[in-house]
Inverse folding.
């Protein structure tokens, strides 16, 4: 499965220095997902030529404005563009009330089916054909969830020579790919391991939303291919970070290190800082494979 | 008094072609006013270096998203920037409910005093030192108000030679400027008209918000220096305009002509049209002194 993350906003609460509030598009083979939707996300979607009609699932981490103020505008545009494709939103229960109040007073009737899935507890929230999305609690000033996309286990690879040798009928190949053993006409069992090999490891992406340094997260994101962890402040401001339920560069990198993830993206930068080079330099001191989450850039997993 | 209008958004509902939803900053000598606040207004405020801390009054015409979805983000940023200056919002009563619901769920406590003035009827809504703001109903799909800023009557100009001739004490000059007659020690009255002349005519700006063609508006905006009237569609689409409670280029120009205004700005352009030159060409056929409301441009009255 194709899995990629496009950053639409890498800034924290106040837009500044041409940077935007949080929003990320997750590209899968079949459809697009949107993680958070800060103000102006629909304009960023236009800027970066994202096919907005392919967004079928929107996940909102929490109700601080820089993570959802752009949602109502995006939905409104979907309505004006006569979208018919159903849309699913996953987020805090109060979000539904906020959206409906605004639809009511603008006399908006959506031409598409909108299903709101209030997030009530951690765990699986979307089981799609090729991937799943789970959510996990972070520690923030208000209730906040991170999201974890996992590619589903890949089918096993058939060994062409072996299936010929054992004369396995092609009609049984789908079962082989799923790991079943083959039993021939004489009742002889040929073990699946003889006929197939393990396919590549399923890919996974964790979006850790807004959070104070929380060592628990290292376990939750263990061995993901890509972790996005906020790094609102440089390491010198760790006290301020804690006070505001945010993290520093080195704290983000420390979670990546302890979780043995493959690669780290840092984002949600404080508007106070224009130059972000020191952020990535600091983080790399702890975890080498770190990059700045750059707006308009797609990170392929 | 200084009076100027800066356009931050000239597009209708869906952002397109680099154009933004409705927002206008009105500059007066003492402070700034904001008329409507579509999504991304706070970013436009940054782009055009508007001093956001000087905005003391915000007026929202109606609850279609392209006229107010940026308000909550702007207020949120004011809070994060530790604004202390009081702020006044004038708009439909339901707007207060929408804002408060979002403040509640983001656990936002404003560090400044926010006074919400629900607009209940047409007429005077703000009586400031140097100007007034009135509102008037337009005809739109939902309840909608236009706004009219009028400079207060200018003080009369003192005629230096005449006051010397009649030996008027300077302490009486303020009364002269207000139009009072002077009575000397012998009880002789010197008429004000002998000592002063009329100052220049007070300036006025009308923002006609969203509206279907409504000839009533010509009376309401009569003889303003500058009229902003929406022209969502070219004249060929007048049927569509009527059906959607919007106006065309020539309808906007016709209101300007019938109202004998000095100058017309047209805006709120449909996202379907990238090239706006035909819009202004059509409007000028009816009312010569017409311009496109251009984003980032300040129109001095």
């Amino acid at each position: 499965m194709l899995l990629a993350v496009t950053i639409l906003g890498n800034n924290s609460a106040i837009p500044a220095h041409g940077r935007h509030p949080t929003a990320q598009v997750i590209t899968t083979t079949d459809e697009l997902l949107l993680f958070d939707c800060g103000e102006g996300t629909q304009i960023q979607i236009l800027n970066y030529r994202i096919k907005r009609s392919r967004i079928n699932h929107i996940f909102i981490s929490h109700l601080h404005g820089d993570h959802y103020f752009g949602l109502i505008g995006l939905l409104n545009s979907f309505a004006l563009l006569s979208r018919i494709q159903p849309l699913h939103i996953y987020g805090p229960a109060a979000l539904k009330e906020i959206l409906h109040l605004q639809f009511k007073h603008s006399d908006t009737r959506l031409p598409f089916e909108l299903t709101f899935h209030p997030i009530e507890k951690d765990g699986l929230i979307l089981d799609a054909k090729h991937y799943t999305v789970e959510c996990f609690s972070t520690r923030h000033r208000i209730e906040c969830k991170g999201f974890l996309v996992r590619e589903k286990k890949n089918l096993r690879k058939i060994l062409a020579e072996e299936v010929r040798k054992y004369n396995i009928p092609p009609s049984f190949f789908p079962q082989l790919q799923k790991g079943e053993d083959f039993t021939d006409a004489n009742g002889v069992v040929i073990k699946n391991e003889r006929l197939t090999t393990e396919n590549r490891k399923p890919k996974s992406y964790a979006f850790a939303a807004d959070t104070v340094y929380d060592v628990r997260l290292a376990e939750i994101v263990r061995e993901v291919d890509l972790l996005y962890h906020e790094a609102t402040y440089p390491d010198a401001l760790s006290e301020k970070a804690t006070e505001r339920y945010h993290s520093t560069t080195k704290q983000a990198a420390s979670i990546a290190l302890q979780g043995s993830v493959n690669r780290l993206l840092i984002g949600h930068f404080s508007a106070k800082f224009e130059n972000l080079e020191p952020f990535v330099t600091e983080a790399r001191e702890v975890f080498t494979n770190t990059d700045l989450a750059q707006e308009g850039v797609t990170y392929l997993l």
